[in-house]
Amino acid sequence: MVRADEPAKVRTGRAPPGFLPLAITEFWERFALAGVKSFLILTLIDDVLATDRGSVLGLSGIGRLLGGWFGPLTTAGLASQIYGITNALLYLAVPLGGLFGDYLGKRQYGVHLGALTMIAGLTAMFTRTLFLPGLMVFALGAGTLKGNLSVVVGALFTDDGARRRGFAVYLGFLNAGVICGPLVCGALTVFGGWRWGIAAAAVAVAAGLACALTATRLRAATGDSAGFTSLARTRSPTGHRANLPLLLLMLLSVFLAFGAYEQVGNMFLVWTRDQVDLRIAGWQIPLPWLLSIDGLFTLALIPLVQVALRALARRGLAIDDIGQMTLGCGSCALGNLVLAFGAWVQPGALPSIYPLAYLLCVDLAIVLVWPAGLSVVTRSAPARLVGFWVGLFYLHGFFANLWVGFSGAWYEAMPHADFWLMHAAIAAAGAAVALLARALPGRPARLRQEAITTSA
Known about the structure:
Helix content is 73%, strand content 1%.
């Protein structure tokens, strides 16, 4: 419901000029990113690393470096390391891309440069020789785009309530891209080869760049292009006090939860390919489509979880931020236990209920953990360093993907049930850390949650 004291232009429900093209830009960026991730690990194992490794530029150096750190690596182990390094590089590039946008003074230029860099990387990936350098360039471009696009969108709004509603719509476009990317790119890879998947991702980024340029022209036509460079100041909560011990514990809990979750695009796909029969009524589900189901589950769970939390609150059973963190980490542990149980009890042609149950549990975990953790960070950080602490929060993707690559190298060297039990233990440790935060002195009884959920 819109408050009576909000500006009239907000009550009309009309989006500011340029918002829709930028939201579509986010759709295409996530389409390309999720599409490439859906077939990356299997393309590395089955094509890039399968034969004639000497023809792949940079592979021998990466192999020697990682082999010196971790010892001899299997093909799956090396592919997992490359997957983890690529995703870690992407998340590390997000704050660096944001700094670049600050330096330029106009963040839309950071968006444009990020898209062009992504296209250049995807073009290089068409050949096995330049696949790895192109992959790294693609990741840097995606990080640069991500580090600027959401800030540009936020700058379009001068009212806090309108901005929150705008980001809710923006979230819908984001998750739609996460769902559609693997459906299209994954299907093209399965039926035509990995170059078709890369081509689809490149076309998607080009479409996103065209939308971003359209947004710039629309803002210029209204004489309000300055909105691209600055965000309206938001009010700090009354009585705001920093709580560094709570911040550190909640960040640790988030990092542990995502460390257990991020195998969803890595060894989860390898395990499912080897252990699960994905045929339903005689039709084979393309393996990359599991990542589309991952996004679909997340999108569906967001409103369902919010309705459930409000219903519990009306019955006097309100779940605070620590409770949501604990439940989320517990759900992530349960999802990994599902895979461990399947690997232990019935190895081989498992029914598709196993990967679907896993995805439902880990997606519920993210829907619970993400908003609660971000809410605590934004409300408990020192008033002048909120942006710094939010940046640390977003590094969960960096550290989680480093862990994914590192731990994935053990996948073939240990029983698969033990591999998933290890990740269940990591998520359970996140729940324990969240419970430890509840015992901290001076913690507010309940922090009102206003964060927007996304699995990105």
